Amino acid sequence: MGDEHKLLSGKVAMITGASSGIGAAAARLFADEGAAVVLMARRAERLAELVESIRGGGGRAAAVAGDVRVAGDVARAVGTAVDTFGKLDAAFNNAGYGTAGVPLHEMDAQTYDRTMDVNVRGVWNCLFHQIPAMLDSGSGGAVVNTSSVAGLKATGASAAYVASKHAVIGLTRAAAYDYGRRGVRVNALVVGATRSEMMDGVIAQLPELEEVFLSDSLQRRMSRPDEVAQAAAWLCSDRSSFVTGSAMAVDGGSTAV
Quick one: signal sequence residues (predicted)? Predict the structure, then answer.
């Protein structure tokens, strides 16, 4: 297939949380589908390896080591997209943080603060810097924020995580409302349990949760990171041109019942 027929041909996309899991899968997929990708995460060595792999396969990629909680780091990543590739068309705001669920009164303030800072402030920082770059391009853009099944219902995850993922959907809908008439689409993914490093860490803490996650899915399995990445790529592409303000379930049917 020629590059001009690829899903994201000619696009420049920023991906956060790109060093592992869904973010790394999205980095590879977006590049394979024709996008130039700017990858952001805290683990610089992993980002460098991923960029080298993408470039080795003929793709275009750049990395910015940083933390989505730090507005200046996000601004650097957006600036890298514009300075290196000339624009920013799409963003997949995927960085997230979660811990094994404990009753609300047993959660310490530090865990609450970190959960909200990464999952909510991080998305806010990204939207704050990405949307002006898309508006400046004159051709609009598309943003996808990673929420969760916990953004629609209590799941047994911590109260802070559930609250943060509800907030991601709220930010998504508000931004879609604010910028829809200016050509910027903003959507969220309602992601079910996904095999990733973060999930492995949660299950290591509470092994009994694995069966809970499996039984929650109508398909009796967790998703693969690349399955979530496929949904993000579609929402970042022109093929989803009439989709904005949505919370799209990629959850094996767990919110269908």
Answer: none
Within 86-158, residue ranges assigned H as helices are 109-116, 122-137
Residue 227 or residue 213, greater confidence:
227
Question: What gap in Å lies between CA 31 and CA 128, rounded to an integer?
Answer: 24
Token look-up 């949760």 returns 209
CATH classification at residue 23: 3.40.50.720
Q: Cβ distance 46 to 22 under 8 Å?
A: no
Model confidence pLDDT, tens digit, residues 160-175: 999 999 999 999 999 9
| Lookup: tokens for 250 | 């990629």
Judge contact between 126 and 119, C-beta under 8 A: no
Does the reported pTM lie above 0.70? yes
167 within a domain of the structure (yes/no): yes
Q: Residue 115 falls within a domain, yes or no?
A: yes
**Residue 249: in which H helix or E strand, if any?**
strand 247-250
Give me the active site residues, please: 161
